[in-house]
Design goal:
Blueprint lengths: L2 E4 L1 H15 L3 H20 L5 E3 L6 E6 L2 E8 L2 E9 L4 H4 L2
Helix pairs in contact: 1-2
Length: about 100
């Protein structure tokens, strides 16, 4: 299993997701963030699980979880979670 590392942006994304959902559903917010973290751990155990993203720069892979998309890179024995974004956002613009 690869080591799992979150970038500062990914950590900020998780906090924003938590805060946004918690405004109306605090218990759901914690469950959603835990599901995202569990999915990241699953990716670390199977790094090639996600789809290769040739449409964005940087050799990223992506893995969908509900309405969010986990963007990550595999570097040696590390899975680096770069962003966790709402799938409705303009992903190419964000990665420009």
């Amino acid at each position: 299993m690869a080591r799992l590392r979150y970038t500062l942006l990914a950590k900020a994304d998780l906090n924003c997701i938590l805060d946004h959902i918690a405004e109306h559903r605090p218990l759901t917010a914690k469950k959603v963030v835990q599901r995202l973290r569990d999915s990241c751990a699953r990716i670390a155990s199977l790094p090639e699980l996600g789809k290769v993203r040739r449409d964005i720069l940087g050799e990223y892979r992506s893995f969908p979880v509900d309405r969010w998309i986990i963007f990550y890179r595999v570097v040696a024995d590390v899975v680096e979670v770069h962003r966790i974004l709402d799938g409705a956002r303009d992903i190419r613009l964000i990665f420009k």
